[in-house]
Amino acid sequence: MAPKIGERIEIQSYKHDGNIHRIWEETMVLKSQSNLLIGANDRVLVKESDGRHWRTREPAITYFTSNYWFNVICMIRSDGVYYYCNISSPFVIDDEALKYIDYDLDIKVFPDMTYIILDEDEFEQHRKQMNYPDVLTKILFKQLHTLERWVQQRKGPFSPEFVDKWYEHYLTFPNYN
Predict the structure, then answer these.
(1) Domain ranges (residues) in the chain
(2) 57 carries an active-site annotation
(3) Catalytic residue among 8, 22, 43, 77
(4) By the 8 A CB rule, do 58 and 77 touch?
(5) Which one of 85, 90, 132, 145 has the minimum C-beta count within 10 Å?
(6) Residues of the chain whose pLDDT is less than 70?
(7) Domain 8-171: which topology?
């Protein structure tokens, strides 16, 4: 069952072998459909699998879709919006949290919409360690190229109005952070 707008949910990231990778303590749901969840958080507690804890430094709008193998975190900073994009499994939601598998490959997008691909070494290491099937590797690289096209075309969460619209909506909730 999809969470309700205004509800706070936990986000859990896993690795291919089923081990927990990272947990975001709470994100407020701004839009919730069976194939799409848009959320927001600000200075949220993050727990790492190695036991470390830290807080995010800025407000963020999160974009999760079950139609593609990626998710996007839009970080609102004083010098513009930075995007951190995870190549991941499509999300699922249960009564515990929103969950996905993180496949290491990431794209960091800067406010001027230039971008870099990150963690290719980590992906290669985990692909061998966890025996990613060839078909999975092909899917992940195809999705990486789809994500690059979205950035170049300013599609979805990269469109000029996306972050402003959803951040303004987030600020209308009582006790938004």
Answers:
(1) 8-171
(2) no
(3) 22
(4) yes
(5) 145
(6) 176-177
(7) FomD barrel-like fold (2.40.380)
